[in-house]
Design goal:
By secondary structure, the protein is an alpha/beta fold. It is about 35% helix and about 15% strand. The chain contains 4 helices and 5 strands, in the order E-H-E-H-E-E-H-E-H.
Length: about 170
């Protein structure tokens, strides 16, 4: 079975910086991605994310996240940091990522590796396009997302080699 690292950008481009996950995926789709790495537009997320994760060995979700940081700051969150009980406002969408992950965990639909790369928005308001500060950080964010995907892909491949049985 091929090792697939799926980058899923989530957001609403009609709400300013909330569209940063979609903008990242659009940029990635214009680049040559490493073998086994895919970039997918996850729209506004919600429960459809579970379907988009299907078949992936690792998923990296990219979304705007209110973290109290400078606009354009990227931070990695593990599953344990994104819980429905915490209600931490990490996701700016109706069906929070914590709820999606909890259901996915309960239904055993989550990939073996899953984390969120959150980007601090400057402004989430009804308008098309990113704020100047998030737009200015976009190239660096794309590079960091691609580096994370490459790292996960390399780890998956080396883990596959370590777990192979010797040939008789």
């Amino acid at each position: 079975m091929p090792k697939i690292v799926r980058i899923i950008g989530v957001g609403n481009p009609l709400m300013g910086d909330d569209g940063v996950g979609i903008a990242v995926v659009e940029r990635l789709q214009g680049l040559p991605l490493p073998p086994g790495v895919e970039a997918v537009d996850g729209g506004t997320g919600g429960l459809t994310l579970l379907h988009l994760m299907e078949g992936a060995t690792a998923v990296i979700l990219v979304d705007a996240a209110e973290m109290g940081e400078l606009p354009g700051t990227l931070r990695r969150f593990g599953l344990d940091e994104v819980s429905p009980e915490a209600n931490d406002g990490l996701s700016l969408h109706q069906a929070g990522l914590g709820e999606v992950f909890a259901l996915g965990r309960e239904l055993e639909l989550l990939p073996p590796r899953l984390f969120v790369l959150g980007v601090q928005p400057e402004s989430v308001e009804q308008r098309i396009g990113l704020s100047p500060s998030v737009e200015a950080a976009l190239s660096a964010v794309v590079a960091q997302v691609l580096a994370a995907a490459t790292e996960v892909q390399r780890e998956s491949l080396s883990a596959g080699f370590r777990h192979r049985q010797p040939v008789p």
